[in-house]
Amino acid sequence: MTMDVALLPVYNQPSFQYFVTLNNVGCTLLFNYNTRSGYYHLTVTLTDGTVVMEGRKVVPRFEIFTSDMYEKGPKGSFYLTPKEDSIVESVETIMFWADNYLLSFAS
After folding, report:
1. Which of 20, 30, 61, 102 is the least buried, fewest Cβ under 10 Å from its Cβ?
2. CA of residue 78 relative to chain centroid, distance
3. Inter-residue long-range contacts of 92-98, CB under 8 Å, 24+ positions, other chains counted
4. Whole-model pTM above 0.90?
5. What is the model's pLDDT at position 3?
């Protein structure tokens, strides 16, 4: 069994979005930084407007998915991985995540 992995762009901006195709499914990824939680939150919307993930906190080293994604959207999971083992999760490293982490989608 092979696994496909796509690296996805992240930006050091409080809010951004872009369109991407994952497993032949077109979707818009919306990222919002939440100052209260100290993390970015991800919303995934399909081209027909169906939201398959809404406001999910993006935490390093944890698999990020929902049953709706597996049911209606791209089959797979998002992962936020430190660029180096020495990176310690903190408000600063998360806020400037483009400098410190890689976001991927594995299917």
Report:
1. 61
2. 5
3. 94/38, 94/39, 94/40, 94/60, 95/12, 95/33, 95/38, 96/12, 97/10, 97/12, 97/40, 98/9, 98/10, 98/11, 98/12
4. yes
5. 76
